[in-house]
Amino acid sequence: MTRVNTVLGTISAAELGFVAIHEHIGYGMPGCELDSRWWKTPEERYEETVPKLRKFHENTQKWGAATFVEATGICNGRDIDYYKSLSAKTGVHIVASTGFVGGDTALPFFERASVEYLTDQFVHEITVGIGDSGAKAGIIKVGVSRGFKMKELDLRIYRAAARASKITGAPIFTHLAVDCEPALNIFAEEGLPCHRVLFGHADDGVSQGKINEKALLDAGGRIGFDTFGYDLELPDPPFWGRARAERLKHFLRFINSGLVDQVLASADANCSPLGWPGVKGHTVNYLFEQLIPDLREEGIDDSLIDQLFVHNTADFLTLQPISD
Ligand SMILES: [Zn+2]
């Protein structure tokens, strides 16, 4: 049987239904919980989050189930007991991440951690559980620190992630697809096939012109169009925003070149952002309210939409250990 780790237990890939592959219940910088401007009571957090997840569940009805992949790594406000409670209340499967969004958001405790230490940490969270929550991570987060160049700690995290992925079979997703050469070298050296890696945010406004798409595709990597909805048309767009039509055109270029197996799409929205105001009006439900209608208008049919959000994602999330 295929296996995927969710916060409420291990399920088969066929049970995932529609998958939003890169989302956040709440993401923040380390220490954000101490910022008095952004303190939220548990009631406020639930109040902001539950309706969005319920709507997500409702929007996915025709696919039979809803899966929300929570892309917040260690140190960025990850809260497993909260995810468990949300999943139980809303019926949405939640897949939690081990790993780090980027080396620059890892607390000093991890700064000098060896590759072996980090590998053990990720493997433990995937096979035993995260803290004392009893929940196992289903995916490994890695990322490029600010500055669009991999830092030394980023490289160590990537290498540990590659080893942990081979041991546990959990896939990897990256924050940013820029400076991919060192990443591709590490995955090749460690013997991890790149179809186990989603190179994320290949569609954002600030990365354009900085991504070697050909190298990623040639290596067999998966390309993440996972910031859908951060549109410049928003009233107060974030610095990584992009014109809606331009992002869609970029995505369609991949789909129309027969690369549908190598792309994944998501909104990277925060249900209830931590320590920052978030982006007003942007939720995981953008996928249903804007993206899927846009795709349909461009002649993309249901089977292709299923391929993107059901089959590609199920294949990617299925635990697939790789022996040497
Ligand atoms: Zn994200």
TrEMBL record:
<dbReference type="InterPro" id="IPR001559">
    <property type="entry name" value="Phosphotriesterase"/>
</dbReference>
<protein>
    <submittedName>
        <fullName>Phosphotriesterase-related protein</fullName>
    </submittedName>
</protein>
<feature type="modified residue" description="N6-carboxylysine">
    <location>
        <position position="141"/>
    </location>
</feature>
<feature type="binding site">
    <location>
        <position position="24"/>
    </location>
    <ligand>
        <name>Zn(2+) 1</name>
    </ligand>
</feature>
<feature type="binding site" description="via carbamate group">
    <location>
        <position position="141"/>
    </location>
    <ligand>
        <name>Zn(2+) 2</name>
    </ligand>
</feature>
<comment type="similarity">
    <text>Belongs to the metallo-dependent hydrolases superfamily. Phosphotriesterase family.</text>
</comment>
<dbReference type="GO" id="GO:0008270">
    <property type="term" value="F:zinc ion binding"/>
</dbReference>
<feature type="binding site" description="via carbamate group">
    <location>
        <position position="141"/>
    </location>
    <ligand>
        <name>Zn(2+) 1</name>
    </ligand>
</feature>
<keyword id="KW-0378">Hydrolase</keyword>
<feature type="binding site">
    <location>
        <position position="201"/>
    </location>
    <ligand>
        <name>Zn(2+) 2</name>
    </ligand>
</feature>
<feature type="binding site">
    <location>
        <position position="175"/>
    </location>
    <ligand>
        <name>Zn(2+) 2</name>
    </ligand>
</feature>
<feature type="binding site">
    <location>
        <position position="268"/>
    </location>
    <ligand>
        <name>Zn(2+) 1</name>
    </ligand>
</feature>
<dbReference type="Pfam" id="PF02126">
    <property type="entry name" value="PTE"/>
</dbReference>
<dbReference type="InterPro" id="IPR032466">
    <property type="entry name" value="Metal_Hydrolase"/>
</dbReference>
<feature type="binding site">
    <location>
        <position position="22"/>
    </location>
    <ligand>
        <name>Zn(2+) 1</name>
    </ligand>
</feature>
<dbReference type="GO" id="GO:0016787">
    <property type="term" value="F:hydrolase activity"/>
</dbReference>
<keyword id="KW-0479">Metal-binding</keyword>
